Amino acid sequence: MSGLDNIGTALPRRTARQPGGMPPPRSLPPSLAGNPALPYPQIGQELAELRVQIPGVHGCVLGGVDGLMITHNLQTDIDPSDLAALAATTYGLGRQVGLRLGQGDFQQSTVRNALGYLSVYAVSAQALLAVVGGDTINVARLHLHAPQVAERLAVLLDGVTPTSRQR
Q1: Where would a tag sit more exposed on the chain, N or C end, judged by fewer CB atoms within 10 A?
Q2: In which band, very low, low, confident or very high, does the pLDDT at 163 lie, cut at 50, 70 and 90?
């Protein structure tokens, strides 16, 4: 490509950003995945209550911002580890949008597809709640209840010392 359009006019080019235009990248906190100190029964209860409160929820995954699955209650053929990774990807994109637009920290993102929804909610600096629902789910109702569940999950995770995972 020559950098000219079809009538010979020079096309505009992006210029390099000046240093300091972007904040420095943050390192990820240690992972909670596989931590035996987590209150798994209480976490499971919160995830189950969300499924009961919102018809159309196929299941939830509590995952780390690092993309590792902590626990889940999916009752579909969806791989919970894949969903945890998708939630972390969604978080990463939402976090960058918030940074670039000066809108603050990531809170929530929803993806609507032809046959359903994926909503990802911030739980803490280390964890995300991913909710998979069918196309009949009441998304407004989900957005009312899921943040409250995320807050209760944050309380359950507060004070749990992360494990350092070796790769």
Answers
A1: C
A2: low
